[in-house]
Specification:
The complex is a heterodimer of chains A (219) and B (180).
Chain A lengths: L7 H11 L10 H15 L6 H28 L6 H40 L7 H19 L7 H18 L7 H14 L1 H8 L5 H6 L4
Chain B lengths: L2 H9 L3 H23 L2 H17 L10 H34 L12 H11 L2 H12 L4 H8 L3 H18 L4 H4 L2
Classes of the chains: A mainly alpha (219), B mainly alpha (180).
């Protein structure tokens, strides 16, 4: 039995009319494939085979066990007055560890914000968005980028290369002229495509909810 | 060579097989991404992200469903999450703009059918819009949509029915077009 809301004439008309909605352009498969290859090469993820996963899991359990054992031994045997040096070292290590986690959270949040900003910039590249506002946001992100370039994070060659690419793009956006920016925007977008900055940026951001994933079990 | 053999070769690290698998599916993934995003740059980003994730996670594909169904599950996840992110970002920008543009009166011309249809589809709730575009525009079955979106087939059918009902109301000025 036909539902009272069904109307085959309307449905057919709607299907035909909706073909014009976001009608796709020809698939740029070559361009996309090149970027996929580049992004995957830059990831250099070590694939763990099933047996390797068991080895890694066993090693993790072993390390955890040793850690718990040492910690409980320290708690039970170290007299407070005579153990200032080891306790101090332990506190320093814990502070280092917390600082490292805090740094990772900040870095991940920065990368996520930059990704959202650049994705939106590229999508809006041909529209009349507010150039002054974009430039202001780019300047804020640029300041963070430059701080990161001066931090220990930049010791990692891959991250350093990504930060340098981001610094260049953000600097260009921060200098956009509100009066005549169409051509400049095109050039920036072309540059972003050529350097594959967005795929590289995405591959540097860990999957999952950002702050939670990085701080699980640590804070 | 059938698809399961192709997938086995990709798992073994054969880059030519990766390319063949990509070629076999890229059109449909890109089309869906474009329909949902309405923007070439975003659709390209989402398509790339889909294939990067698919190749990275191919080890977890067990072959219970067709590869295309598994791939479209990744596509819809990537696209819908990506669009939410862009929407949140644009909303923040719009809020800032609104604060500067209070008192500016905007006048709109009477839109034609195409513009009204676009607006009506854009205004659909995300779930309705996704099901409508996948089923009525891109030709996915309710079974495929159910798997891709992680919902029951019945839910997909119900959402499509509600989407059509909402569009019918939104486009009632054009009723003469379909009762001819």
């Amino acid at each position: 039995m036909m539902d009272q809301h069904e109307d085959p004439k309307f449905e057919q008309w709607l299907k035909d009319a909706a073909k014009s909605y976001h009608s796709p352009v020809p698939t740029p498969s070559e361009e996309m494939w090149k970027r996929i290859e580049t992004a995957r090469r830059s990831k250099r993820v070590i694939e763990l085979r099933p047996w390797m996963r068991w080895v890694v899991a066993a090693a993790a359990v072993l390390i955890l066990g040793i850690g718990i054992g040492r910690w409980s031994a320290n708690q039970a045997s170290a007299p407070a007055a005579t153990s200032t040096a080891p306790a101090g070292t332990q506190v320093a290590n814990e502070i280092d560890s917390l600082a490292n986690v805090a740094y990772q959270v900040a870095a991940t949040q920065y990368l996520s914000r930059t990704e959202a900003f650049l994705t939106s910039f590229r999508a809006d590249a041909n529209r009349s968005a507010n150039t002054a506002r974009l430039a202001r946001q780019a300047r804020e992100l640029l300041a963070t980028t430059q701080l990161m370039l001066d931090s220990p994070a930049a010791d990692n060659p891959r991250l350093r290369s990504l930060l340098e690419d981001l610094e260049l793009v953000l600097m260009q956006i921060s200098l956009l002229n509100p009066v005549q920016d169409g051509h400049d925007r095109d050039l920036i977008t072309q540059g972003m495509n050529q350097t594959n900055v967005l795929p590289k940026l995405r591959s540097a951001i860990p999957a999952g909810p950002v702050p939670v994933r990085r701080t699980e079990g640590a804070l | 060579m059938d698809e399961s053999q192709l997938i086995a070769r990709v798992r073994a690290g054969d880059s030519a097989a990766e390319r063949a698998l990509y070629d076999a599916h890229v059109d449909r993934v890109y089309r869906l991404a474009f329909r949902l995003a309405g923007d070439d740059a975003l659709a390209q980003d989402f398509t790339q992200e889909t294939f990067i994730r698919a190749f990275d996670r191919l080890g977890s594909f067990r072959g219970d469903a067709a590869f295309s169904t598994w791939l479209h599950t990744i596509t819809t996840t990537v696209v819908l999450n990506g669009l939410r992110k862009v929407k949140r970002f644009r909303q923040r920008e719009a809020d800032i703009d609104d604060a500067h543009e209070i008192g500016v009166v905007q006048r709109h011309a009477e839109p034609d059918l195409k513009a009204r249809l676009k607006q009506a589809i854009d205004d659909l709730p995300e779930g309705y819009r996704t099901v409508f575009l996948m089923h009525d525009v891109e030709g996915y079955t309710h079974e495929e949509i159910g798997v891709a979106l992680g919902v029951e087939t019945g839910t997909s059918k119900a959402q499509l029915s509600r989407a059509r009902a909402k569009l019918r109301v939104a486009l009632s000025d054009f009723a003469g077009e379909w009762v001819k």
